[in-house]
Amino acid sequence: MKDKNQTFSLKLADLLGRIYPHLDSDILASQVIDAFYPAHTHRRKRGRVPGNGQWSERDSLLITYGNSFVDGQHKPLDLLHDFLHRHLGGVIDGVHILPFFPYTSDDGFSVTDYRAVDPQLGGWADINRIGAEFKLMSDLVLNHVSSQSQWFNDYLQGHAPYDRFFFEAEPSDDLGSVVRPRTQPLLREVETANGTRHVWCTFSHDQVDLNFANPEVLLEFLRIMRLHIDHGVRIIRLDAVAFIWKEVGTSCIHLPQTHAIVRLMRLLADYAVEPVILLTETNVPNGENLSYFGNRNEAHTVYNFSLPPLVLHAMMAGTARVLNRWQGTMPPAQLGCAYLNFTASHDGIGMRPAEGLLTAEEQAQLIDGVRAFGGLVSMRALPGGGEAPYELNITWYDAMKGTFDGEDQWQFDRFMASQTVVMALEGIPAIYVHALLGTPNDHDAVEKRASKRAINRHCWNYSDLNALLEDPESTPSRVMSELLRRMSVRRRQKAFHPNATQFTLQIDERLFGLWRQSLDRGQSIFALHNVSADALTISPMSINLIEGEQWVDLLSGQKIHPSGAEISFAPYQCRWISNR
């Protein structure tokens, strides 16, 4: 037992030595343990061994704001709880409630108080109730804090320890290589009790970056992580984690200390009594994103950020050529790790993850197509000057209105095909509430809130929504009913375990095809998705259906014979052909 404790201690000391080489690792280690394992908790005697047991084919997530549903009478978190039980119980078992803390801007990502629930949403009791019944994900917004927070106010007044909590630089510093997700100036001039200072603002001047070179900042966030865990959170999303460590003269993204901090959090999570999963949010090119798996010692899960722009391209272009090529080169997640697959989210459709995958011409086509369907484009500043598209702002349902040739009659079918792709891929599927409900673009919100992202952050009147969901002909009812039907089918298939074997099929450019095989090798599923408006057929022999097995399309119930007739696909039809 002593050796096991020694292993934890040695790993912790090594990581702290990498992050803070000039400080005493033993003292810091003691402070870290006190922060993450306070008196009311205790640490596991041995860390969790990486494996496939943290999740299963039954797992999926709903992504939603705490106030996606309002009625002017009940707490929004009460309404969310009712929605989860009334409509999703037994089908979707997890929920990511986007930042539910008091805030000043960016719909929650400019936090003023990390230890409180926004009273306009509800309280910790409401979070506890949801966390007791669903796998709950919360955001650790650790790169920045609101400029109107008590932390920043204490910084301005020179009060310890917050006088050293924020990252400062000078306009004369070498900042030309800094990778930016926005276009506004990086530095904000402020007057403090200690004189004029320039604070670092990666995202906006209301979101001031913290200084993780000060270990007190890290310790405070470990205490906040523990608070989340104590309130039932089991998946912690590390928001904008790629930017947390800065060094003037560098890109200030993905620095070695950043990865070491993620490894430290993983070490603590793996020794926690509670089954805590870390998810990194890194909206960057594919190779950079995958680096946050580390060597099975960083994030348990990473967002599959290249998936949304590539699925969007496939649906608009009517060909899976690029999607097939990319998926064929994607590595399986390491043991103890998994992808989080999605198309829509509270943010836009990231363009950085498409870099190196879509040509400049293909990206321009995508941008023109989104604009044609009422969408918007957000830009980012480039190192050395200039701008480039950062994300496409549009609801996913409206993005499916048509193709590069314009609008057509296939919006519903095209949308369903795009979501079925997400369900079939290796990993855990996540669906944004406004995709689940087929919500249209909210241009009024964009104008009222002066934010392009507001186009996909609609607040539903809960009574109106339930009336629509009771009408089988309404878009929200049609979309949600069919999505949940397919999700119900998915969660019963062992071949859709997040770590089940996956092989990309190359059959027809209009088909995105996968072969999935369960971990016990008992079930095979050929997941085939027509991404075009064409009717087409393929031979059963082209997917090597084994004679003597009973094959059936799980989505339609149709039996498929290995030596029988051609397998037909209507426009945007999907088939999950299984041997059991």
TrEMBL record:
Ranges where the Glycosyl hydrolase family 13 catalytic domain occurs: 63-434
InterPro entries named in the record: GGa_phosphorylase (IPR033746), GH (IPR017853), GH13_cat_dom (IPR006047), Glyco_hydro_b (IPR013780), O16G_dom_2 (IPR045857), Sucrose_GGa_phosphorylase-rel (IPR016377)
Organism this protein belongs to: Thalassovita aquimarina
Coiled coil: none
Keywords: Glycosyltransferase, Transferase
Classification lineage: Bacteria, Pseudomonadati, Pseudomonadota, Alphaproteobacteria, Rhodobacterales
The keyword Transferase is annotated on this UniProt entry: yes
Name this protein carries in UniProt: Sugar phosphorylase
